[in-house]
Amino acid sequence: MSMSEYAIKHNLDMAELVLPSVVSRIIQSRVMRTDSEKEQTKNKILQTTRQNSEDVFGVWDDLSDEEKQVILGTLLGDSYLFRPNKTNNTYLECYHGIEQIQYLYWKAYMLRRFKPKIMQRLVYNKDAQRVVCVQYLRTLSSFIFGDLQKYLYDENSKIISDWILNQLNSLGLAVWFMDDGSSISGVSHVSLATQSFVRIDDREKITHYLNKKYGIKTSIQGDGSLYFIQETKDKFISLIQPHIIPLFTYKITDKNLLPILRLSKKFSFDAGHFLETYLG
Predict the structure, then answer these.
(1) Which pLDDT score, from 0 to 100, does residue 167 have?
(2) DSSP letter assigned to residue 84
(3) How far is CA 97 from the centre of its chain?
(4) Helix axis angle, 65-76 relative to 143-152, nearest 10°?
(5) What is the DSSP code string of 99-138?
(6) Which of 32, 51, 235, 280 is most buried, judged by most C-beta within 10 A?
(7) Could you give the CA distance from residue 169 to residue 54 in angstroms, rounded to a whole number?
(8) Residue 218: strand pairing partners
């Protein structure tokens, strides 16, 4: 008669017939086997999910040069990657004010492979101390975005890696500038907001990249932004100008040369204009 049969016959627990150390080893082996099986199942699901993502969106090397540059440029600028619940289902998201809705539509068109949606939401603006309506773009999740995270984020900080800079070209720089660039007094003072890169090493890396690859000199300002030195500022503007959409022409053009729009007749605003039955 086996021990298990004996235990059943006499209504005993197996633990009463086996040394505690033996029982502990048996239980531990079962737990280990279960954890191993769980890990295998998790990996299979991950592989299947990745394959499904690649079937729909492809991999990084499948993207066109324009798609790559728009992704990199806007991620260095206003956009960010979001991965919920520590999965690899990562999507790209960016916010713009109503005055830049045209730019949001342009981004959506350039990233149409990822089926982006443009939505609105109400947020509280601390500076204005009021609720404002903002427009934002969100793509479908893709492993392409998940794989990019290691080049753009270090724990909770935004970084810029050598891999990103080696991929970046004039279009990517133009998108970055449309996101975070500015000019003052015509184009005599051109700068790029790089405050989101909290490490000074990253800002210095950007400065070195621009100088080495394009011969464009910049300096890091006290507020963390990047200032384009006068002697090579025009070289930078010439580099990105072919890619700047009309909405942002003012950023790279002397304000005195821009056309001025004047209304020849004053008119009063009437909200009734938005009614289908307006009789005015």
Answers:
(1) 95
(2) G
(3) 17
(4) 50
(5) GGHHHHHHHHHHTGGG--EEEEEEEEETTTTEEEEEEEEE
(6) 235
(7) 25
(8) 228
Residue-wise pLDDT for 89-103, tens only, equals 799 999 988 889 999
The end-to-end CA distance of the chain, in Å, is 101
Query: How far are the Cα atoms of 73, 91, 165 from residue 84, in angstroms, in the given order?
Result: 23, 9, 27
In the numeric block, the tokens 């991965």 are attached to: 83
Tokens of 217: 């000199």
Q: Which tokens go with 51?
A: 């394959």
Q: How far is CA 169 from CA 73, 166, 210, 238, 253, in A?
A: 9, 8, 10, 13, 21
Contact 254, 242 (CB under 8 A): no
Query: Which residues lie closer than 8 Å to 4 by C-beta, 6 or more apart?
Result: 14
pTM for the full predicted model = 0.74
Nearest to 111 by CA among 96, 91, 127: 91
pLDDT tens digits, 27-85: 665 555 667 776 666 666 666 666 666 666 778 999 999 999 999 999 999 999 988 77
Give the separation between CA 69 and CA 223, rounded to whole angstroms.
27
Averaged pLDDT score across all residues of the chain: 82
Structure tokens at 17: 């017939």
Q: What is the mean pLDDT of residues 226-244?
A: 94
- 198 CB-side CA count, 13 A: 6
Residue 218 burial (C-beta neighbours within 10 Å; 0-12, 13-18, 19+)? buried
